[in-house]
Design goal:
The chain contains two helices and eight strands; from the N terminus they run H-E-E-E-H-E-E-E-E-E. It is an alpha+beta fold. The chain has a domain of about 110 residues. Keywords: Signal.
Length: about 180
């Protein structure tokens, strides 16, 4: 009798655990391709982000960034080691698309984990882990090497939606989110 009393709760726990695995697995597969839209919309689109202006976002609305240490045309991302969890790559879906008003050529490179990372005009794309909500854009100017991206696929180094400038952002206030050099626009 004691064996049965122990076996039933263990069986119930095993069934619940297996059910949870299915849910985790489903979430994990969607996390591996945040840009995947299943044909329901563009992978890269425009959004207005506070003082940053109109910039590219992924299909979930997260701000998209360029990394100055990446060189256009390279076959791998330069973001490795401690960079990877702070600046997750934008995963490349099978059929990436651009939203209205967005121009450029989409492609892929290998990210630090060996996955397929989306590129725009040959430049790898990232999100910023401290951008928790869709309206967040805390990464522009981070260490003077991370920049938001405009509708033409150019990095934005000045605030208010201007692009192509190589100057640093004008007198930004340090981000209260920490992270060593990020700016909160």
């Amino acid at each position: 009798m004691n064996k049965r009393a122990v076996a039933v709760p263990m069986l119930a726990a095993a069934v619940l655990a297996l059910g949870g695995c299915g849910t985790s697995s489903d979430k994990a597969s969607s996390d591996h391709s945040p840009g995947s839209t299943g044909g329901s919309g563009p992978v890269l689109k425009l959004a207005t982000k506070g003082k940053v202006g109109k910039v590219l976002v992924d299909s979930s609305g997260k701000t998209v960034y360029f990394y100055d240490l990446d060189k256009a045309g390279e076959t791998t991302s330069a973001c490795v080691g401690p960079c990877v969890p702070l600046w997750p790559s934008v995963s490349a879906p099978a059929n990436p698309t651009l939203g209205p008003g967005v121009s450029g050529t989409l492609g892929t490179v290998k990210d630090a984990n060996g996955g397929s990372q989306l590129t725009l005009n040959g430049h790898p794309l990232y999100t910023y882990s401290l951008d928790k909500d869709a309206e967040d854009a805390y990464g522009p100017g981070y260490d003077h090497i991370w920049w938001v991206v405009d509708a033409r696929g150019a990095k934005v180094t000045t605030m208010g939606g201007s692009s192509g400038s190589t100057s640093s952002p004008g007198s930004p206030s340090p981000s209260s989110t920490g992270g060593g050099g990020g700016y909160n626009y």
